[in-house]
Design the sequence.
């Protein structure tokens, strides 16, 4: 089967289970809640002042959520097949496992890009009039850069999820492990203790792409960050594909 | 030309040999049962045939080609081999996915639901299905591409008597229409009724293969009914023939020709009321073959 045909099968699989609808609902509800609360609570309890670069950047950083959720979707798309043993039927239909994984990567990449773009647009559509009601008529950030960053980061994290699902073949381990790595190891430890190293890692690169106004010593330039994130994604996808092609299905 | 062929197939897991040069053929238009104890190599052979695992050496082919070389695998071979179901997906949607994978119309899903008697459960999530319903759905999935070969791992598991009867009738019709059925099962009585041929495997090696009817005749035991059964038993025992007393007036002589028993009885003037070859069931043959294989290896 062609990669396009296999991708259509993957889309059908996603459409016929509740996981994708729950994931999208979580993204949209929490993104909107984040936008509204960041604007409404601006300047309170040490939060950045309303309309400041930090405040607007935080308001529009919904891709932190979309990227994590898409990573979980990517993990479920592959790891879930191993968990429920549907992977056997998938490989019986297409014995060329590299093509199967390529189709899953293509599907999640496309879905992640759409979800990232749409969610950022939704956040912007809510934020602009809400800021306007509070007297803020100019958003002091680079909107196109953040929008593109949201698309790239969400798509790449979805792809990282597919790779992690294929490598671990265990949804629970992959989801817990990835959340611990991103939120604890990278964000809490490395970005504070070793920012020079952290900016070269996936989350450091994603932060550089999806937020605005950081010191250049702590984050990479957007183009470099995009290259780093895409590089990590390509590396993990390549390793996952190689291992998947060699491994027996038990 | 055989439909399925295993040639010197070997699969090692570390130091453990799951298959050790297994060779066998499966013919078209017949139901071939694949028999062996747990861990004998049945499922491993099927997985290698279906491209789910790599052989250490040897080949497993479908009409001369490996599974991975088939252009449209699901249209040539349908398999039920422990594949699972997404529990939150409905039966119809499961078959829609299978149809898309096979490159056939989604309407095939409804045809197959009807065929396996699951139309009423089409919209239900598979997670709530009984084992028997899952087996029927798995069979429907295997048939989605209208293949001419079926490879089924324990297809009778979980089926109620009606389900077993339906499966038996379906497989018979499939084979009579020229299809090839290769099934593993531990239900030997069921296999004896359903299968044309049997392949018996033990510790990764072929033990024997051939028509089931031929295998069932392979035990040349003679059941003799006589009022002087004790005397006849002693006489046969003196000739080195293994004799088992099964009733006051009945003995079973193992591995002996009927003529020898008759001549022995005639020489001693023993009255014989009845003498017949024991009709070994497949289970007895299976155990005898596996046991003798274990003693010779």
Sequence:
């Amino acid at each position: 089967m062609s990669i396009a045909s296999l991708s259509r099968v993957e889309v059908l699989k996603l459409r016929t289970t509740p996981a994708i609808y729950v994931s999208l609902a979580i993204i949209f509800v929490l993104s909107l809640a984040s936008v509204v609360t960041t604007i409404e609570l601006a300047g309170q309890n040490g939060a950045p002042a309303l309309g400041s670069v930090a405040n607007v950047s935080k308001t529009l950083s919904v891709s932190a959520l979309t990227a994590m959720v898409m990573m979980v979707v990517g993990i479920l798309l592959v790891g879930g097949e191993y968990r429920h043993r549907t992977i056997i039927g998938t490989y019986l239909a297409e014995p060329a496992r590299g093509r199967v994984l390529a189709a899953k990567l293509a599907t999640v990449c496309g879905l992640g890009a759409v979800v990232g773009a749409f969610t950022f647009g939704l956040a912007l559509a809510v934020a602009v009039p809400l800021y306007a009601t509070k007297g803020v008529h100019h958003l002091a950030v680079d909107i196109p850069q953040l929008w593109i960053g949201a698309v790239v980061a969400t798509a790449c994290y979805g792809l990282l999820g597919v790779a992690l699902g294929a490598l671990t073949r265990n949804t629970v381990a992959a989801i817990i492990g990835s959340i611990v790595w991103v939120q604890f190891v990278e964000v809490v430890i490395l970005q504070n203790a070793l920012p020079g190293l952290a900016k070269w890692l996936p989350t450091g690169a994603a932060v550089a792409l999806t937020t605005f106004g950081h010191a250049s010593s702590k984050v990479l330039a957007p183009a470099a960050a995009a290259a780093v994130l895409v590089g990590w994604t390509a590396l993990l996808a390549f390793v996952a594909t190689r291992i998947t092609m060699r491994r027996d299905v038990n | 030309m055989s439909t399925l062929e295993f040639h010197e197939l070997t699969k090692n897991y570390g130091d453990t040999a799951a298959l050790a040069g297994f060779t066998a053929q499966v013919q078209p238009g017949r139901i071939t049962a694949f028999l062996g104890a747990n861990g004998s190599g049945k499922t491993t052979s099927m997985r290698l045939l279906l491209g789910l695992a790599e052989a250490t050496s040897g080949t497993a082919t479908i009409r001369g080609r490996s599974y991975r070389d088939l252009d449209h695998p699901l249209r040539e071979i349908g398999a039920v081999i422990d594949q699972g179901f997404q529990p939150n997906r409905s039966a119809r949607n499961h078959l829609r996915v299978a149809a898309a994978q096979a490159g056939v119309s989604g309407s095939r899903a409804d045809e197959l639901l009807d065929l396996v008697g699951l139309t009423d459960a089409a919209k239900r999530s598979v997670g709530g299905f009984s084992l028997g319903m899952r087996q029927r759905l798995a069979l429907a999935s295997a048939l989605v591409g209208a293949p001419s070969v079926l490879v089924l791992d324990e297809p009778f598991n979980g089926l109620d008597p009606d389900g077993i009867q339906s499966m038996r009738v379906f497989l018979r019709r499939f084979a009579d229409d020229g299809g090839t059925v290769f099934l593993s099962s531990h239900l030997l009585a069921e296999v004896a009724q359903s299968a044309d041929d049997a392949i018996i495997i033990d510790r990764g090696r072929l033990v024997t293969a051939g028509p089931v009817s031929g295998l069932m005749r392979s035990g040349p035991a003679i059941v003799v009914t006589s009022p002087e059964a004790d005397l006849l038993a002693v006489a046969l025992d003196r000739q080195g023939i293994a004799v088992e007393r099964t009733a006051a007036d009945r003995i079973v002589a193992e591995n002996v020709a009927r003529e020898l028993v008759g001549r022995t009885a005639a020489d001693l003037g023993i009255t014989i009321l009845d003498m017949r070859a024991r009709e070994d069931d497949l289970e007895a043959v299976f155990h005898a073959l596996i046991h003798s294989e274990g003693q010779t290896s």
Remarks:
- Chain A has a mean pLDDT of 91.
- The longest helix of chain A spans residues 97-133.
